[in-house]
Design goal:
Blueprint lengths: L3 E7 L3 E8 L6 E9 L6 E6 L4 E6 L9 H14 L4 E8 L10 E2 L2 H8 L8 H15 L4 E6 L18 H5 L9 H14 L1 H4 L2 E6 L5 E6 L2 E5 L20 H9 L5 H10 L2 H6 L5 H6 L3 H25 L4 E5 H6 L1 H10 L9 H6 L12 E4 L4 H13 L6
Length: 396
């Protein structure tokens, strides 16, 4: 009977999960699944590592995170791997605030502290914490572990960590935190395996997806990133605006008579690729469209990403390696190519054939910057942290 960890990665309307065997030094994926709440009857699907169907069910309750389908997940695990195999549930928690620089076993007090951070991630934090409350209710004896998207950036220091506002606000925690840290940590580790000499230098990882951000790393450590206090800042995203003139927000409230709630809805749900195109937040749909607005949205996405690479390179004092990851970064060759073209002045040259084939290294022989596509695996990062915590080792 293996020792297992259930890893949950909660999104806006779905929860990805994976079950990992932690009996060996490196966690091994046993099965994976999706709890999808897009439909009126939420659906749970579990698949094997080769993609074969293992289990599927639906819930009559519209809120699947309320416990009905989670109980089914636990039942499946116990039936297949034994009643006492599950050691813990690991959660991706978007915001850890100033206090949490590594994984932590959750208690009621810690969960309450994380709930208090909801204003810093108003859409993400409640979604991440909902399963915590559910498992505490249906299986209170089960260990739950939080792994934070902000932890990888915990060492950000001035000036990169600061906003140009009075210091009294920084003292209250209003600073740049950064996100997508679990993804950046995994990709940085893979780069160190593939090209250790590059990982020791100046690297930018571009996590491009429905949520998108860049991380500037020196010797594998985050020293700058494009997201700030909240996951709203930085690049153009699927429905999020990214960096915006704060005067726009004042204008919307003062002259368009929009409430705070209406502005929040606009910036998080009605902007980004969806807002610019008026068609879709999905990059695949926009790339396949012949509409002018779709091309404009893709162009703005690529333009802003290239701008941000140059900004991160300024922090690093140069650039040795650029890595694409995330749903768009891994699969949209057109976007990678467009970003590369805008960065030609920096010595970035992407080889068209390698880019089309999505080989690991996609730069041309004349490129002064090494360019890679490395698939991310946030669930594996969480599994590693949870396994180490259970074994009593400190992980930072």
């Amino acid at each position: 009977m293996p020792d297992t960890i259930l890893v949950l990665n909660s999104g806006s309307s779905s929860i990805k999960f994976g079950l990992f065997d932690i009996s060996a030094a490196e966690p091994t994926l046993l099965c994976k699944g999706l709890l999808d709440e897009h439909e009126a009857r939420p659906r749970l699907v579990v698949k094997g590592t080769a993609g074969e169907d293992l289990f599927e069910t639906r819930s009559d309750a519209p809120d699947a995170a309320g416990g009905h389908l989670f109980a089914d997940v636990l039942g499946f695990i116990e039936d297949r791997f034994g009643e006492r195999s599950l050691r813990a549930v690991g959660h991706r928690i978007v915001h850890g605030g100033p206090d949490y620089s590594g994984p932590v076993a959750l208690t009621d007090d810690i969960t309450a502290k994380l709930e208090a951070l909801t204003p810093l991630a108003p859409l993400h934090q409640p979604r991440c914490l909902a399963p915590v409350r559910t498992f505490a209710a249906i299986r209170p004896e089960l260990t739950q572990i939080a792994c934070f998207d902000t932890a990888f950036h915990h060492g950000l220091a001035p000036p990169a960590s600061r906003f140009a506002i009075p210091g009294r606000f920084e003292a209250r925690g209003v600073r740049r935190y950064g996100f997508h840290g679990l993804s950046f940590e995994y990709v940085a580790g893979r780069l160190a395996e593939i090209a250790p000499e590059l990982a020791a230098g100046r690297t930018i990882i571009a996590h491009l997806g429905n949520g998108a951000s860049l991380c500037a790393l020196h010797d594998g450590r985050s020293i700058d990133t494009t997201m700030g206090l909240t996951p709203l800042d930085g690049l153009v995203m699927g429905t999020r605006c990214g960096t915006i003139d704060p005067g726009v927000l004042l204008y919307l409230q003062q002259h368009e008579n929009m409430s705070v709630e209406e502005v929040q809805q606009l910036l998080y749900h009605e902007s980004g690729l969806f807002g610019v195109s008026g068609i879709s937040a999905d990059m695949r749909t926009l790339l396949a469209s012949g509409e002018v607005a779709a091309r404009e949205a893709v162009d703005l996405f690529s333009f802003r990403a290239a701008q941000a690479v140059a900004m991160m390179a300024t922090t690093l004092g140069g650039l040795d390696c650029l890595v694409f990851t995330g749903g768009i970064g891994e699969h949209a060759k057109e976007v990678r190519g467009a970003i590369g073209e805008r960065l030609a002045w920096m010595g970035v040259r992407i080889d068209a054939a390698s880019n089309d084939a999505v080989r690991g290294r996609i730069n041309g022989s004349d490129s002064t910057v090494d360019v890679f596509v490395i698939p991310t695996n946030e669930e594996m990062t969480i599994a590693r942290h949870c396994a180490a915590l259970i074994r009593g080792r400190h992980v930072t």
